[in-house]
Write a structure and sequence with these properties.
The chain is α+β, with helices and mostly antiparallel strands and 632 residues long. The protein contains 15 helices and 36 strands.
Length: 632
């Protein structure tokens, strides 16, 4: 991050986007041909590396990985294990399977991953027979060095392809570190696989293939991945260290002549009121030593290497910069000390999809995330701006009609200042609960302030909903509640004993409106929604709950809706075979079928005022809520 020249930032982002349009993460695609093993890979080397390369498969796609320890640690790419939920970009895919060279299969846990550098660490528990790779020396790799790639494309046998390292200092791909370029063919599905040297030692992790160009692939040097392993293992992500927030530039030949200096690293931007400014750094300073060691960057590759060595130091490390300050001929040497801090979660930038959770009101077509220092710089937002950053606006939605745009900063709702995500959620939910026809919104767009108003459609106005929540964790509760409020429903929450419910993201506990014992056949409600979770199984043998479910099934004017583990309740509550079609989580389907229920296996099912869902992800839950809203 520090390498970016603030004044050239817009040009940099534009040129990077053009380049990215030509680069693709390598995904599984069974249409690619198997490339035969070339003759210049010795058979004994092939036999040496083959047992260490694994196939990685999950519900979305898959790729390749390689074993780095006998106890089951595996390296791959972040994009190979990335989940499908755009609101939770740090969540990996579900149900990941690792297939060894001998066809043994194991469930894998993703310990952590990053999208830039594109590295993931997985773990399997295998009783025996794991053969780790031998790690090579990627710091001393050279152009023209023989190399070969091994991969396991989905639906195909593994492939061996041979070539050379054709470039070891690629810096124009929008990546945080230097990457290698190889002409060893990296076939579709080979992402996350190893690039070996001629002796079968790993030089890097294959990650990108070039669209429209044959035999051009890119590899993350293995020393980069090695530096990330401990963070991925212990923190679940790569934790960058820096003194926030300053950027640097290499001092190329023409710039060196203009500055009348032989070398060093130029500080091109220092954020106002930042730790870097408090340390004493100034734009135009030239770093010539770090902790007494001379440093210099004449090229972009040297700059990335310089920054990487600082980035991987532990947060809390004290660091000393020796600087040259002033005009040519009048410069003075300045020594400053600072302490490295852990960088906050990354917003989307260049090849990085971002790490910040998005808080989305799908009914409004609006998604926001925490406003960070990097947002201020990337999007040129005034340094004193506060609020939430608009990540998503759906075309034609309530937010779109209010002319809110991605990149805006919402700083006020209904006259109340928005300091953070927590304030945004509480204030907006409060306005929606009042079913205000127009909700005033103030926002910052670049250097300008704008005032608008959101006019929700409230398609469920005057419909009374009771959310029945079992004790324990219920991660879907906030989503259900906010989407129902945004639809205009009157929402009450009932729990056993009126037990308070914990929430995420620093929000205070949610105090229920009703004790569950107060909810019965006489309670006025248009819709009863039973939420899911393991704790919902406690409802299965509760006679009062089953009586309530039975009464709702018999009430032709009331919608009964069940999620996840609660979907078995209508089956258990029925005196005879349950007539309406239902769906359930797969592990409950056998119990439903055994009792004669009409199980369909769909994500969402509705018939005769009964709506059920597996509740597997946010999109499914939103489809479920829409189906609930459609019931009349």
């Amino acid at each position: 991050m520090r390498r970016l020249n603030f004044f050239l930032l817009t040009t940099f982002i534009f040129s990077t986007c053009l380049l990215q349009a030509q680069l693709l993460p390598v995904e599984g695609d069974a249409s690619e041909p198997v490339i035969k093993n070339p003759v210049d890979i010795p058979e004994e080397i092939m036999r040496k590396v083959d047992p260490s390369v694994v196939s990685i498969q999950h519900e979305r796609a898959g790729g390749t990985g390689f074993i780095i320890s006998k106890d089951g640690y595996i390296l791959s790419n972040g994009h190979v294990v990335l989940g499908s939920d755009p609101e939770q970009p740090t969540q990996p895919a579900k149900r990941i399977t690792v297939i060894l060279s001998d066809e043994r299969k194991f469930s894998a846990k993703v310990l952590g991953f990053s999208m830039d550098p594109d590295v993931a660490l997985l773990k399997i528990d295998a009783p025996e027979g794991l053969i780790p790779v031998e790690i090579g020396d990627s710091r001393n790799a050279s152009v023209g060095q023989r190399s070969f790639a091994v991969g396991t494309p989905v639906g195909l046998k593994r492939t061996f392809t041979s070539g050379i390292l054709s470039n070891i200092t690629r810096t124009d791909l929008g990546t945080e570190t230097v990457v290698f370029q190889t002409d060893a063919a990296i076939n579709s599905g080979n992402s996350g696989g190893p690039l070996f040297d001629s002796q079968g030692r790993v030089l890097g992790i294959n990650t990108y293939a070039s669209r429209g160009q044959n035999n051009l692939g890119f590899t993350i040097p293995i020393h980069v991945a090695e530096a990330m392993i401990e963070d991925l293992k212990t923190k679940g992500r790569f934790a960058r260290s820096l003194i926030p927030l300053y950027f640097t530039n290499e001092i190329y030949d023409e710039l060196a002549q203009a500055l009348q200096i032989d070398g060093g690293v130029l500080i091109s931007y220092v954020m106002e009121n930042s730790s870097a400014e408090e340390m004493g750094l100034k734009m135009g300073d030239i770093i010539i030593k770090v902790d007494g060691e001379e440093v210099s960057a004449h090229t972009k590759a040297e700059l990335l290497d310089f920054e990487w060595e600082l980035t991987i130091l532990p947060a809390g490390t004290e660091i000393e910069f020796t600087l040259l300050r002033g005009e040519p001929g009048e410069r003075e040497e300045v020594v400053l000390s600072g302490v490295l801090e852990e960088l906050e979660l990354m917003p989307a930038f260049n090849r990085h999809v971002g790490e910040l959770p998005e808080h989305r009101y799908a009914t409004l077509g609006l998604g926001v995330e925490k406003l960070t220092d990097l947002h201020h710089v990337i999007h040129q937002i005034p340094s004193d701006a506060r609020g939430v950053f608009v990540k998503t606006v759906v075309e034609g939605s309530v937010a779109s009609r209010a002319e809110i745009q991605p990149g805006d900063v919402i700083d006020t709702i209904a006259g109340q200042p928005i300091e953070n995500i927590v304030a945004f959620r509480e204030i907006l939910d409060s306005e929606l609960a009042k079913r205000e026809k127009a909700i005033p919104v103030e926002m910052i767009r670049g250097q300008l302030n704008n005032i608008t108003a959101m006019a929700p459609d409230y398609l469920m106005h005057n419909r009374k909903v009771i959310l029945i929540v079992p004790p324990g964790e219920n991660p879907d509760l906030d989503l259900l509640r906010r989407e129902l409020l945004a639809k205009g429903a009157s929402v009450q929450i009932a729990t056993p004993g009126k037990t308070a419910l914990s929430r995420d993201d620093g929000l205070p506990e949610l105090i229920p409106d009703l004790d569950l014992s107060e909810v019965n056949a006489e309670t006025e409600a248009d819709i009863l929604i039973f939420t899911g979770g393991e704790a919902a199984k406690e409802f299965w043998d509760n006679p009062d709950i089953l009586a309530l479910v039975k009464a709702s099934l018999d009430n032709e004017g009331q919608v009964l809706a069940c999620i996840g583990e609660s979907t078995l309740l209508p089956v258990l509550a029925s005196d005879e075979k349950l007539e309406p079609k239902i769906t359930l989580p797969r592990d409950l389907s056998g119990q439903a079928v055994m009792r004669g229920a009409s199980y369909t296996g769909k994500e969402v099912e509705s018939e005769k005022m009964l709506v059920t869902t597996t509740g597997t992800d946010r999109d499914v839950l939103r489809e479920f809520l829409q189906e609930v809203a459609n019931q009349r």
